[in-house]
Amino acid sequence: MLIILSGCSSEANETTDEKVTGLVSDYLKALESKDISAMVKYSDDLRFPNKDEQEKEYSNIEEEISDTEIVEIKQVSETEFEATVEIASDGNLNELAFPIQKQEKDWKIIVGQDF
User: Fold this and answer.
1) Confidence (pLDDT) at 113
2) Which candidate, 14, 8, 33, places its Cα nearest to that of 107?
3) Nearest 10 degrees: CA dihedral of 34, 37, 43, 46?
4) pLDDT at 106 exceeding the cut of 60
5) Exposed / middle / buried, residue 35 (Cβ in 10 Å: 0-12, 13-18, 19+)
6) Would the pLDDT of 2 be above 50?
7) How far apart are CA 1 and CA 12, in angstroms?
8) How sure is the predictor about 114, in pLDDT bands with cuts at 50, 70 and 90?
9) Whole-angstrom distance, CA of residue 49 vs CA of residue 17
10) How does DSSP assign 35-75, residue by residue?
11) How many Å from the N-terminal Cα to the C-terminal Cα in the chain?
12) Do 75 and 84 form a contact (C-beta atoms < 8 A)?
């Protein structure tokens, strides 16, 4: 008896690059739509000691983000990438770089760091 299990788990077939690109894309969509729970889920904000505090502070954001775009994603190491993105908010276009780190099983966008 031969059992073929191909295609059973698309996540297992997804490359690390695809996972990280998907994470950044989902995070940017959350920024545009002000989906606070998704923003908290996809990121690790160094300014806040826990996710509850992060969510509370994010609910006070008044900035209007009208457009976002991934400029570049490059691998730094096995457990870190860097994403360069453009964010249009309140009539201004800003280019920002975010580290993306593997934390346990998941990848997280690191925000709130000092440059």
Assistant:
1) 75
2) 14
3) 90
4) yes
5) middle
6) no
7) 24
8) low
9) 29
10) -HHHHHHHEEETT-SSHHHHHHHHTT----EEEEEEEEEEE
11) 59
12) no
Please tell me the predicted confidence (pLDDT) of residue 84: 97
CA–CA gap between residue 42 and residue 26 (Å, rounded): 8
For the ranges 5-9, 14-18, 28-32, 110-114, the lowest mean pLDDT is seen at 5-9
Average pLDDT estimate for 69-96? 95
Element (H, E) at 98: strand 92-103
Q: Does 3.40.50.2000 match the CATH number of domain 15-111?
A: no
Strands 65-77 and 92-103: unpaired
Q: What is the largest CA-CA distance in the chain?
A: 63
